[in-house]
């Protein structure tokens, strides 16, 4: 599925759809579509991530997960599955003889004893317990009971699963040594350096999370303050069409059509879906009008050379083969609008007032 266009449109739309408050003052800006009463000194909540301290335990958990990711898998062929093994299975679930949605998978890995699947309940053993003792190549049926706390449509129901056991494996997790670090890190040479590398990574992720939270807050706060005169209908139509196209691609990825996506996955009607798309498109388009006013007032627009550098950066971040392929996929106007949003949002963040949350 091509998700690049969807990411550009929906990321901006989602950020500006939440509720927010506005305090502060600045010069009023206006055009034929919108009036921006104020945009400097926006009062926004301090990001939760900004107050979180990275602990030694968090660092150690990340280190252990990185080491575990390099575990060596060995196939077991001379015995039955037992607790602690990893099994690869195909399974299909039935209630009253009818297969149910979400109850089937092919080539799924499962660690027996992990508690990842349905546990023992009432008179029935757990899903994983009933795989123990079976050999590679076996096909068999098991019966489980969903817990009462499960999703409403399956809560408390008894289900049969047909299982095909494709393979049994064990994993050996290597020891964290300087040699392991040298083989698995491009930045560190020993264990101490690797732990610091992981701490730096967590701190960087925390900073990115705080910035993302601030970006959402200032965008929302600005949007909710705008005095809307009218909408640029051609831009609204373009955004609405792009969003709808993205959902059609999503439906195709799920192996269904738009009707199936709306009823099964989004659980909404076509009328409500179209109204929501129109609302998001309108709010995104009007937010872009405010962004252009602020950029012009503060001289935030980039030179053509700077735009090209940004486009290359965005293309690389989105995994495009090259800039031309990226622009063809997403559309140059959408990319430029996204870049301008980011520039203005960073300006608003620099100018905002962060209020400590209780």
Automatic annotation (TrEMBL):
Pfam family, one: FKBP_C
Keywords of this entry: Cell cycle, Cell division, Isomerase, Rotamase, Signal
Record InterPro entries: PPIase_dom_sf, PPIase_FKBP_dom, Trig_fac, Trigger_fac_C, Trigger_fac_C_sf, Trigger_fact/SurA_dom_sf
The keyword Isomerase belongs to this UniProt entry's keyword annotation: yes
Any one Gene Ontology molecular-function term assigned to this protein's record: peptidyl-prolyl cis-trans isomerase activity
Subcellular location: Cytoplasm
E.C. number: 5.2.1.8
Location of the PPIase FKBP-type domain: 84-153
The reaction(s) this protein catalyses: [protein]-peptidylproline (omega=180) = [protein]-peptidylproline (omega=0)
Main localization (coarse): cytoplasm
Leader sequence segment: 1-24
Protein name: peptidylprolyl isomerase
Organism encoding this protein: Ruminococcus turbiniformis
Gene: tig
């Amino acid at each position: 599925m091509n998700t690049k266009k969807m990411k550009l449109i929906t990321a901006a739309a989602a950020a500006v759809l939440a509720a927010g408050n506005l305090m502060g003052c600045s010069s009023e800006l206006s055009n034929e579509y919108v009036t921006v009463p104020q945009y400097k000194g926006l009062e926004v909540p301090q990001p939760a991530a900004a107050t979180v301290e990275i602990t030694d335990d968090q660092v150690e958990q990340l280190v252990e997960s990185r080491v575990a990711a390099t575990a060596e898998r060995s196939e077991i062929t001379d015995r039955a599955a037992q607790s602690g093994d990893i099994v690869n299975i195909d399974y299909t679930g039935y209630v009253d003889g009818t297969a149910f949605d979400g109850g089937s998978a092919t080539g799924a890995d499962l660690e027996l004893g992990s508690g990842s699947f349905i546990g023992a309940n009432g008179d029935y053993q757990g899903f994983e317990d009933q795989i123990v003792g079976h050999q590679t190549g076996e096909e068999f049926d098991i019966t489980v009971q969903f817990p009462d706390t499960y999703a409403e449509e399956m809560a408390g129901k008894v289900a049969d699963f047909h299982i095909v056991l494709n393979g049994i494996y064990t994993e050996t997790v290597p020891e964290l040594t300087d040699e392991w670090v040298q083989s698995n890190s491009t930045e560190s040479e020993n264990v101490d350096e690797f732990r610091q590398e992981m701490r730096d990574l967590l701190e960087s992720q925390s900073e990115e999370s705080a910035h993302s939270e601030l970006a959402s807050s200032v965008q929302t706060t600005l949007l909710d303050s705008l005095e809307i005169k009218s909408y640029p209908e051609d831009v609204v139509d373009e955004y609405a069409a792009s969003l709808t196209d993205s959902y059609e691609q999503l439906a195709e990825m799920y192996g269904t059509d738009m009707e199936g996506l709306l009823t099964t996955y989004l659980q909404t009607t076509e009328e409500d879906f179209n109204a929501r798309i129109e609302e998001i498109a309108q709010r995104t388009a009007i937010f872009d009008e405010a962004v252009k006013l602020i950029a012009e007032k503060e001289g935030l627009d980039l030179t053509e050379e700077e735009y090209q550098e940004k486009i290359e950066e965005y293309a690389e971040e989105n995994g495009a083969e090259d800039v031309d392929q990226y622009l063809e996929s997403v559309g140059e106007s959408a990319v430029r609008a996204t870049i301008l949003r980011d520039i203005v949002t960073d300006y608003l963040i620099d100018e905002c007032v962060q209020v400590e949350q209780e």
